[in-house]
Amino acid sequence: MQVDFLTDRSLTYDECRTKCTSFAASLQSVGAQKGDVLAAFLPNLIEYPLILIGASGVGVINTTLNPVYTAAEISKQLELSGTSWAITTPELLPTMREAIDRIGDKRRKDALSQPGRIFVVGAGTCKTNEGTSSSKQVHLGRRCYL
Fold first, then answer.
1. What is the mean pLDDT of residues 95-110?
2. Do 74 and 41 form a contact (C-beta atoms < 8 A)?
């Protein structure tokens, strides 16, 4: 059993396996491929290891970002790691968008600015952004079922 001691949420091993598989399927459904890089910009959540395991299960490489990083630090890591997908929380999303806006490599910046490239997770659900590169307004859409 996996337990989040801050929230008292718990998951059985079977629930963990199901959530890993569901997230992996969600990544594949939006076009993630083996060798792509997923940046995880998350606080300590019960879903955090499940996200990393799910991504690894379909060959997606993980790069983790500390939630206290600045947009400049995140931007540099996104560039150096070749990130093509990201996952964060609603609270951290503005910093992620600012970091993407700061990327100097136009190809990398354009890839991360495409609709559906940022997953937003919170309260046990996950959605992808749908269609804006503005750091002030992000439309949420497709669930990824965490």
1. 92
2. yes
Domain residue limits, the chain: 9-143
State the average pLDDT over residues 47-68.
Answer: 95
Pairwise pLDDT comparison (110 vs 61), residue with the higher score: 61
Domain 9-143 has CATH 3.40.50.150: no
